[in-house]
Amino acid sequence: MSRELRMIWVNEQIDPSGIIYSCIACCDEAQAQACHQEFQDNLTDEQRATGWIAQLRQVESWEDVPVNALKLSY
Question: What is the pLDDT along the chain (74 residues), one digit of tens a residue?
Fold first, then answer.
């Protein structure tokens, strides 16, 4: 049985010390891009100045998604 490889998009807001503050993961690229834009837009100038970042990355397995993530299956 062949299994189609499906990328998982992981959105993270990360504080200056490297701790993930928010994380949402999904398989829909358009939804992931919209979420990433929202994460970026929600960072204040003060947060950006102190080193907060919004990051979008891809993984191949749900096992590679941080455990505290909101996992969306669409």
Answer: 445 568 999 999 999 999 999 999 999 999 999 999 999 999 999 999 999 999 999 999 999 998 878 787 64
Query: Could you give the strand order of the β-sheet that contains 20-26, starting from the edge strand earlier in sequence?
Result: 53-59, 8-14, 20-26, 70-71
**Domain assignment present for 3:** no
Q: With 0-12 CB in 10 A as exposed, 13-18 as middle and 19+ as buried, what is 44?
A: exposed
pTM of the model: 0.83
- Alpha helices, DSSP H only, in the chain? 29-42, 45-50
Number of domains in the chain: 1
